[in-house]
């Protein structure tokens, strides 16, 4: 069986590492052709991930990034189509909700190549988010939808997607947290390098277009973070750094800005922070996996389960809500009770592999 995997952004590298390893370890041979669109083209946000996570070197690197959503998506469709015409895979596999995800799905479906979508069924119900449009269109184009939660299954059912296409396999990011969490403890020296004490700092990430392209929201978030009683470590997305400079927004003295860090270093920062403040969907979940409370700098989240069980607090870009949450949760004693198996059993990669192989056998 030949599977073409399309990836382009940092969270997708992590998910692909899990599934690629499952492909290699399965008894039935799987030939994987990896296409890197180039959506994250910075070395700190791309190449280091392949090296750290043991992902096979991409067979194709399209080098597409830095343009508008329309420019990127159109060029990606054209590039991916050429790869598919040459490779003729049995499946096109995409992850998440990026422009690379949508481009891969559209290129494949028009060539009548079966599409599998990992992390299907997520909904923020905010159509102003480019990611929301990407995930909805990809789900409706896909032939196999791998969901991380029961909520995601229900979302797809409500949109009329046939239950026969849907398989709830859990979250591949939980697989990654279990596997790479142990590796990070052995390999990462980030805490010593930054002179950080465990549970004595806050970790923050910020990159969503709705936040960083809006001067008022970006400034409000920085004002909110300034109230933290503890130092804040912020590995900064290049887009966010540019916007802070462009809008002349003051970064609080308590915030230590870093260049993007590798995955294993990020895991160590997540595991040992007393609190995480983020607008990233992936980091929200990783906070829960590593039992670190999280405040989400957005007005909504796809991961409603985390809000319901108390591990995630939505604060948007409201200064007062951020200020209240960032210090209320700074005490370890405020952590909620741990809830097991919200995102599966840590074997999502194996289930994806078995499902695609079994469906391939039935098609013969």
Describe this entry's structure for a reader.
This protein has 364 residues and is of the alpha/beta class. It has 16 helices and 13 strands.
Strand line-up in the sheet with most strands: 3-2-1-4-5-6-7
How is the biggest beta sheet arranged? 7 strands, parallel
- CA gyration radius, whole angstroms: 20 Å
**Cα shape:** globular
Q: What's the average pLDDT?
A: 92
Q: List the helices and strands in order.
A: EHEHEHEHEHEHEHHEHHEHEHEHEHEHH
Beta-strand share of residues: 5-15%
Number of helices: 16
Secondary structure: number of strands: 13
Q: Distance between termini? A: 11 Å
Low-confidence stretches: none
Could you estimate the helical fraction of the residues in percent?
A: 40-55%
Structural class: alpha/beta
Write the layout of secondary structure elements.
Blueprint: E1 2-7, H1 10-25, E2 31-36, H2 47-53, E3 60-61, H3 69-87, E4 91-95, H4 99-109, E5 114-118, H5 130-141, E6 144-147, H6 150-158, E7 166-168, H7 172-187, H8 190-193, E8 202-205, H9 209-212, H10 215-225, E9 232-235, H11 238-246, E10 255-258, H12 263-272, E11 275-278, H13 281-289, E12 294-296, H14 304-308, E13 312-314, H15 319-328, H16 348-363
Parallel strand pairs: 1-2, 1-4, 2-3, 4-5, 5-6, 6-7, 8-9, 8-11, 9-10, 11-12, 12-13
Helix pairs in contact: 1-7, 1-16, 3-4, 4-5, 7-12, 7-13, 10-15
